[in-house]
Amino acid sequence: MMDADPNLIHYSELKVMGSESRAPQDFHIAVRAMCGGIVDVKPMVSKVVPLERIKQALDEAPSVDTMRVVVELPD
Predict the structure, then answer these.
(1) DSSP 8-state class, residue 65
(2) Calculated CA dihedral for residues 61, 63, 64, 70, nearest 10 degrees
(3) What whole-number distance in Å separates Cα of residue 73 and Cα of residue 23?
(4) Which residues are paired to 70 by β-bridges?
(5) Whose CA is closest to 68, among 48, 40, 38?
(6) Any idea where the domains of the chain sit in the sequence?
(7) Which has the closest alpha carbon to 69: 55, 33, 20?
(8) Which residues, 6+ apart, have CB-to-CB distance to 47 below 8 Å?
(9) Which of 12, 39, 45, 68 pairs as cysteine with 33 (C-beta 3.0–4.6 A)?
(10) Which pLDDT belongs to residue 52?
(11) How far from 67 is each of 31, 48, 64, CA to CA, in Å?
(12) What is the mean pLDDT of the chain?
């Protein structure tokens, strides 16, 4: 779990989103489509940041120039 300041989220009007209401099969179909080159998600990703820069990513995310920010997890 990630610690977050609820006041920062509230007063900055940030949106915290996660995945929901999808069947595990939907996830596997989507991954196969991406891995098979059927769906190219690169145009949908504005920036990739390492986990240790998540604060910066959250600060930059609510922007007209940002479609999706991907947080890269360590191996």
Answers:
(1) T
(2) -10
(3) 23
(4) 48
(5) 48
(6) 45-75
(7) 55
(8) 57, 60, 66, 69, 70
(9) 39
(10) 93
(11) 20, 11, 8
(12) 84
